[in-house]
Every structure is written in C-alpha cells, then in structure tokens.
Amino acid sequence: MKRRAEGSITVYLCLILLVMLSLIFAGISSARSAARRVTLAAGTEEGLFSAFSQYDRTLSDTWGLYFLDASLGTDEPQYGKILKSIREDADYIIDPRRENPVGKNLLGLETCPEQCALTGYVLATDCGGQPFARQVCRQMTQQLGTAALEALKKRLSEESVKAGEGKERRGRINSGTAGELYDESHPEGNTVEPDSEIEVTNPGESVTSAKKRGILALTVPSSKHVSAGKADIRDFVSHRQLESGMAMVPTGYSGDAEKILLLEYLMQNFSSFTDEEDGDGLRYQVEYAIGGKDTDEENLRAVVRKLLWFREGFNMIHIMSSPGKRAQCEATADLVAAAILLPAAAPAIAWTIELAWAYAESVMDVQELLDGGRIALFKDDASWQVSYSGLGSFLSGSERHSSSNGLDYEEYLRLLLIAQSAQALTLSLMDLTEYVIREEERRESFRLDHCVEVLRVQMAARAGTTVYTCERSYGYDMEY
After folding, report:
1. Which of 342-346, 404-408, 439-443 has the lowest mean pLDDT?
2. Do the Cβ atoms of 365 and 375 come closer than 8 Å?
C-alpha cells in the first residue's frame, strides 16, 4: 500500500509538470511570435527611415523642403528600386546574419520579397500641390516666427485694405459722376484759380501719342535693360499632365496665413526686375507668377500694365480731390470747347485731360518703381510728379522723385499677388522651383511630380510555414 501511494504521487506530479511545461512552451511560442512581429515592424520602420534619409538635398538646402526624389536621377520614378532598398535595409533587423554571417537567427525570420509592396504614396504635386504648399507654409512659419508673421499679416492687411478702398473709390469715378464726387469733397465749391498759364491745345493729345511707343518703352528707365530670357513653359508643372499619388490623400495646410506665407516665400526665394540678375532663362521669376508667360519681356509687360492701371486709379482719385488740378483741367477744357465752337463738350474734354494727366503720372510712378524708388499709395501735392505745364512733354520734361513713405516695387508686386488665390500661387511656386533646379543645378530630368512626401509599405517575413505581414507609413510630416 505504501508503494502504491508513492507511485500515485509521482504520476500526479508528472501530470502537473506536463501541464506547466505546456504553458511554458506556449508562452515561449507566443513570445517568439510577438518578437517576430515586433522585429518585422522595427525592420519595416528602419527601412522607411533609411529611404527617407535620402531626401533631395537641393530642395532641402536651398528651400527648406523635404521630398524623396523617386526618379533617383532618371527620367521615370523608380518605385521598384525604392521598395528593394527598403526591403534590404529591413533585412538587417529581420535577419541578423545579413550583417554578421556567423551570427544566429534566433527568430528564424526571412523576408518574403514576393509579398512586399508599396501600397500608397503621396507626391508633392497631389491635390493641386497641397503637400508642397503645406511644407512651404511650415518652412516660412519657422523662419519668420510668430511675431514677425503677425507683423507681416498686419502690414499686408493694411495695405490691401487701402488698395481696396482706392479701387472702390476709383470705380465710382467716371465722366458722369466726376462732378458729383468733387462736390461731395468740396462743398464750398471750386474757387481755386489755375496756377499756370492755360493753353488752348489739349495736352491729352500728347499723352495719347506717347502711348503708341508701347508701355515698356514708356516705363523702363533708360539706365535699365529688359532681359531677353525665356523658357519653354509647356513642360512646367502648371501646363503638363502630372503623375499622381496612390491610395493616400494628403491633408492641406489650414490657416488664414497660408496665402501670405506662400507670397512671402515667393518674394524671398525668387528674383524680380529690380534684382537685375544675369543669366539665361527666366530672370523675372516673380513677374512670371503674375504674367504666366514664357519670356521675361512679356511677364514684365503684364506686370507694368497692371501697375499702370493700379496707379492710374489712385492718381485719378488725387486729381478729382484736388481743387487746383481740377481748375486747370476745366479751364483748358472750356478754352478748347470754345475754340471748336462746342461749349457743351467742355465736361467731356475736361474728363479726357484728367485721365491723360493721371496716366502720365502713372508712367512716371512706374518708372520710379522700376528704378528702385518708392511711390506713395495715395498721392498728395508734395509727392505728385507731373506738373500741368509739363504734361505735353512729360516724358522728357518731368523730374521723377521717390516718396520716403511710399511702397517700393516689390511691395507693389505683393499687392498684385495678394489678389491671386492660394492655388494659383502654389502652382507658380512649383513651376519656378522645378525650373530653377533644372536650370541652375543642371538636372534636366527633375520633376516635382516624382517627389514623394509619404510612403506606405507592406513587408512580409516567413518563419517556417507562418507568414507575418506588417504595414507602415512614414513621411516628412507625421501629421499624416
């Protein structure tokens, strides 16, 4: 009986140990499986980190933008090579024997190349360039700082409000309302006498004759020359069919400052007429963002045309609110109307003289801006340049001068650009960024729609008959 009792205890303990060993081995197997998954995930992330460390150095060093050039210096995206690079870098984590041939692979993992794939990616140009615009905004926010950004927003807002008010007032001025507006500003009536001798000839005719020379001949100072640079814009981002990302949608930059940041990025990183840069190709790059033409001359002409129209409106406002200038125009108009025996035509003649004077002043304004001077948004008698007596020969007889409290050429460009949409500014920035890299870095095959910001990859590894899979995403902005 004693021996049976001892034997029963031994069998019982063996059964207990069997259960315990089963639990231990099950735990070891579970831990090993978990370790395999963690190792696969770590390898996948390591491969992605390694791939994205190869960001385009030109974009980074020159503009502070981070994108992976998927073309790898060729004419087409090399996604297969990128995936292979990610997989090979992941192998150093998944299979330690790759780095140390005499080592051991305790987890028994081996990658399965046939089951590895890129499952999604976002390109710089996707969704109208949202990834590109967001990085530009982030870069400018970091560069300017909160205080400088708020000051910039305030200054541009004030200037835009003034420009808007001027446009609204200019829109109310026409040949039918001129007298009415003048009466509103001068309820005491016009009692000011002309301050110069009035001629019977209509000075507006000389201004009309001067316009035939062309706006660049009128406005570009003799000391300056117009660049002959040009580019084939048919291959620009905004003109060609673009590659698109796959299975991922970028998030756009959100914030009231977006347009201002894009605009300031353009002004800081690209050249304009007053920079006077030499070289081939487009030199007036900021002007391209306004004109969108393929030559510097056409882009400058587009900008000058807008500036003339812009300044003419503000100059007309000053003439209509100046009793002395109104008196001079009206006195000449009365004499001209009497000479042609049409007294009723005096108001219309006065209107054409006022328009001609405003245009002549605008020509001198733009000349001064292109020469590096400053012009006040709203003129006063001190900042006015073209005298009435010199209107007939304003191109040779007027002496230009700068206004200390005025805006310079680049600030006027900002006022023209602020009217554009953020989408239009983004396209112009992508056009110019790509163009400069192609021209200055001699990378003719560079394309922004080959530049990747985010990648999603699926990696697979086998241990025996079990296949483990892992999907990870990585990008230069982890808000994704």
Report:
1. 342-346
2. yes
pLDDT tens per residue across span 77-87: 999 999 999 99
Residue in this structure with the two tokens 């020969």, named with its chain if needed: 393
Cβ count within 10 A of residue 319: 23
Pairing of strands 466-475, 68-69: unpaired
Q: Tell me, what amino acid is at 317?
A: I
- What secondary structure does DSSP assign to 55-102, as a single string? --HHHHHHH----EETTTTSSS--HHHHHHHHHHHHHHHH-GGGT-TT
- Predicted pLDDT at 73: 86
How far apart (Å, rounded) are the C-alpha atoms in residues 398 and 365? 11
Q: How far apart are CA 370 and CA 216, in angstroms?
A: 11
Q: Does the pLDDT value for residue 4 go beyond 70? A: no
Query: Nearest 5°: phi and psi at 401?
Result: -150, 150
Note the helical H segments in 249-322: 258-269, 285-291, 296-320
Tokens 């009035």 -> residue: 198
- One-letter amino acid at 187 equals P
User: Sign of dihedral through CA atoms 46, 47, 48, 52?
Assistant: positive
